[in-house]
Amino acid sequence: MDRVSKLEHRGRTVVLIDVSGCKAKEAAEVLIAGRVLVATFAPASALTLTDVTGTTFDDAATREAQTNARQNAPFVKAGALVGVTGLKKIVYTAVTRLTGRNFSVFDDRQKALDWLAQQ
Questions:
Q1: Angle (deg, nearest 10), helices 59-72 and 88-99
Q2: With helix as H, strand as E and coil as C, how does the chain read?
Q3: Residue 32: CB atoms within 10 Å
Q4: Which pTM value belongs to this model?
Q5: CA distance 2 to 29
Q6: Under a CB-based contact definition with an 8 Å cutoff, are residues 81 and 88 in contact?
Q7: Contact 43/75 with Cβ under 8 angstroms?
Q8: pLDDT tens per residue across span 31-69
Q9: Spatial CA neighbour of 96 closest among 86, 111, 81
């Protein structure tokens, strides 16, 4: 899936999960593909960047975001989010509260990538 990929930034591998501009159903599908890729990493080693800019979430996509956060937890060293504005702040709060995961939130991908490269 083109929306899920590995990229190199400052010598570090980052999993990009790009749900930007997706409608809820497509967002859920991208999140599932991201979960599959993250699960190939050694425990506590993956750096993830999820871009939710312009994405719409419904109940199913929100549940998938929660499932992703929970199931990815053993593999993720650090996770960053971009595009958490408006109603997505409610989704973000629900996901973090229900899963116990913490994500760093950034205004743009470059800042998120720079932070991830330092982790």
A1: 40
A2: CCCEEEEEECCEEEEEEECCCCCHHHHHHHHHHHHHHHCCCCCCCEEEEEECCCCCCCHHHHHHHHHHHHHHCCCEEEEEEECCCCCHHHHHHHHHHHHCCCCEEECCHHHHHHHHHCC
A3: 14
A4: 0.89
A5: 12
A6: no
A7: yes
A8: 999 999 999 999 999 999 999 999 988 888 888 888 988
A9: 81
